[in-house]
Amino acid sequence: MAAAAVLALYSHDHFQSLPTLEEAKQTFLSDAKGEALVKAFFKEIFVEEGMERTFGLAMLHRHFDLGADEKLVEYQGTSTPWKAVAPEMKEPQSSIWAFDGETLKPTEFFYSEKEDTPLSEEALAFQKGQQLGGNPVIPPFVALAFEG
Questions:
Q1: I want to staple 18 with a disulfide (CB 3.0 to 4.6 A). Which of 24, 62, 69, 101 is the partner?
Q2: How many domains does the chain have?
Q3: Looking at residue 2, what is its pLDDT?
Q4: Is the predicted pLDDT of residue 115 greater than 80, yes or no?
Q5: Domain boundaries, position 57
Q6: Contact of 23 with 61, CB cutoff 8 Å
Q7: Does residue 102 belong to any structural domain of this protein?
Q8: What does R_g of the chain's alpha carbons equal in angstroms?
């Protein structure tokens, strides 16, 4: 049985190591048979755990390079590079995590001016849980995405 996942801090180097969209698409569709993996493995886990409306899957990729002091942040439907936020602003929240063995690494973020909706205890357990973390079936091109 897989061990519980550890949530890591954001790493610029990890983000820069992600494949381009075209490379990720090629790997997902042909090399790794990603569609079959989603249907045979992920769908069952998400539905069984009641998390299909909280989390989704994302194909890990990057559209462009980021500076060492930037993160990719989605705000009102658009993702752009952000540097540090102003003192009166809240920090962006992680929204997509890459699986790296037993570690979940944040790769993308979102910003909302409204009060943040924390993950439920069940969602936190699923995110860190044995169902996903460290599972050898999970390929390196798949990410967990918060659908909140």
A1: 62
A2: 1
A3: 45
A4: no
A5: 6-146
A6: yes
A7: yes
A8: 15
Residue 117, pLDDT score: 65
The full DSSP string for 25-51 is HHIIIIIS-HHHHIIIIIHHHHHHTT-
Which residue is listed with tokens 């690494």?
105
Burial of 136 (0-12, 13-18, 19+ CB in 10 A): exposed
**How many C-beta atoms lie closer than 10 Å to residue 1's C-beta?**
6
Q: Is residue 29 part of a domain?
A: yes
Please give the pLDDT value at position 116: 64
Residues 6+ apart with CB under 8 A from 46: 52, 55
47-51, 70-74, 110-114, 135-139 — most confident range: 70-74
Residue 1 forms part of a structural domain: no
- Give the mean pLDDT of the chain: 81
**Token pair belonging to 113:** 């001016």
Spatial separation of the C-alpha atoms in residues 103 and 7, rounded to whole Å: 6
Instruction: Give this prediction's pTM.
Output: 0.79
